[in-house]
Amino acid sequence: MLLLGLFGAIGIYEGGVEMMEQWHLFFTPTPAGTIAGILEAVVITGVFTYLFAELYNRFTGSLS
After folding, report:
1. Could you state, in order of their start, the residue ranges of all structural domains in the chain?
2. Could you give the CA distance from residue 35 to residue 2 in angstroms, rounded to a whole number?
3. For a tag on the chain, would you pick the N or C end, based on fewer CB atoms within 10 A?
4. Which residues of the chain have pLDDT under 50?
5. In this structure, are residues 5 and 37 in contact, taking their beta carbons and an 8 Å threshold?
6. Phi, psi of 48 (to 5 degrees)
7. How far is the CA of 40 from the CAs of 20, 23, 36, in angstroms?
8. Dihedral angle at the C-alpha atoms of 12, 32, 47, 64, nearest 10 degrees?
9. How far is the C-alpha of 10 from the C-alpha of 12, rounded, in Å?
10. CA-CA distances (angstroms) from residue 13 to 8, 10, 23, 41, 58?
């Protein structure tokens, strides 16, 4: 996300930057948009990691 924010700011790899803008609600190739996109990705990753861990623990019989 950081690299695409930097690349978008200088006009490199614009196709990837456009795709990232479509997929992430807060990402834009500006400093504020890059930070917001990173925070959004951190939250999404945390939620999916938590759900994966919960499912793993339930299917393997581990108690949490």
Report:
1. 2-60
2. 8
3. C
4. none
5. yes
6. -65, -35
7. 12, 11, 6
8. 120
9. 6
10. 7, 9, 16, 20, 42
Which residue type does 44 have?
I
51: amino acid identity, one letter: L
pTM value? 0.77
The reported pLDDT for the residue numbered 8 is 86
What does the block give as tokens for 15?
A: 């196709």
**DSSP states along 20-50:** HHHH-SS--SSHHHHHHHHHHHHHHHHHHHH
Q: How confident is the model over 34-44, as pLDDT tens digits? A: 999 999 999 99
The amino acid present at 27, given as its one-letter code, is F
